[in-house]
Amino acid sequence: MQNLSKIIIISFLILGCTPGSKKDEARKIYYFDLKSYFQNLTDSLNDKQQIIQKTVSKNGVKEEKNIRITDWKNEFALFIDADINKSAWKDSYTKDSTTSKIAYRAKYEDLKTRSIHIILNNGKPKEIIIKTRVDNLLYHSEETLIYRNEILYQIKKHQKVILLGLNDYLIEGKFKK
Description:
The protein is an alpha+beta fold. The protein has one domain (about 30-175). It has helices at about 1-15, 20-25, 35-50, 70-75, 75-80; strands at about 50-60, 60-70, 95, 100-105, 115-120, 125-135, 140-150, 150-160, 165-175. A 9-stranded antiparallel β-sheet has the order 2-1-9-8-7-6-5-4-3, with no helix packed on it. The N and C termini lie far apart (about 75 Å).
């Protein structure tokens, strides 16, 4: 009886140690891979220690500084979060492309990322424009995210929060040469 218990326990331990299929599954790419693009870009910019002219504005009140960004992943978080390569969304966007552009549009109103437009130069992104929208009973938000390859990035946000009112934000970083 004691040997049978040991065999059962060892069997459970061995079965419990096998890798789970979901965790090891490779991330599937259905659309342009924004997430990897901006993660690679953040690694490159972190290595360069790039200085930018950064402008931050709330409702027209601006502040401008020349700064060295040390955490580009945080700086590009909204761009990375706009990635549409999720299994549940694989048929949720229409694609229109030529050799010089790729455009995705959401088929359904409830999708946060509404559109992605990528202008290509020799097959590589020259400019990426992303539009997002969130709408619910308490909150309305629209964002336009723009990245122009090593020229600038821009985040425009228009939001309306019940009881707090309307706010417009602009964050712009111009790359210094």
